[in-house]
Amino acid sequence: MATYHNIDGSTGVNVELIKVGTGVRSIRSILITNTQGSNAATVSLFLQDDPAAASAKTYNILSTVSIPADTSLLLDEESLLTFNNTVYGLYMTVGSSDTLDVLIN
């Protein structure tokens, strides 16, 4: 299962990468690429059970990490990326002026 996302913070800073209940069993890697040529991007990556609920449980994988311009961040530790997809989805928050490509494998 590979998924690809082009994220533009100006159209929404909270992005659902993998919806709860989609049957994802494991993720081998996530590549986050800042496609801007001059500005760093700020990224948070987290698991959440119900984003619409006020009492949603959130578990951060990355919290406000700065990715320099024209740079990629590779997360490839499978134990860090394994989660119960019947309960949790994978989400990202980005800055409003950030543009990123996210490849999940």
Tag the structure with descriptive keywords.
105 residues; mainly beta; 4-stranded antiparallel beta sheet
Q: How would you characterize the overall build of this protein?
A:
With 105 residues, this protein is mainly β. It contains one helix and eight strands, in the order E-E-E-E-E-E-H-E-E. Strands 1-8-3-6 form a four-stranded antiparallel beta sheet, with no helix packed on it. The termini are close together.
Query: Which whole number gives the mean pLDDT?
Result: 93
Q: Give the H and E element order.
A: EEEEEEHEE
Biggest sheet strand order reads: 1-8-3-6
Helix content: under 10%
- Find the count of extended strands (DSSP E, 2+ residues): 8
Low-pLDDT runs:
none
Beta-sheet strand percentage?
over 45%
Rounded radius of gyration (Å): 13 Å
Structural class: mainly beta
Biggest sheet: strands, sense, closure? 4 strands, antiparallel
Please tell me what the overall shape is. Answer: globular
Give the distance, in angstroms, between the N- and C-terminal Cα atoms: 6 Å
Total of helices? 1
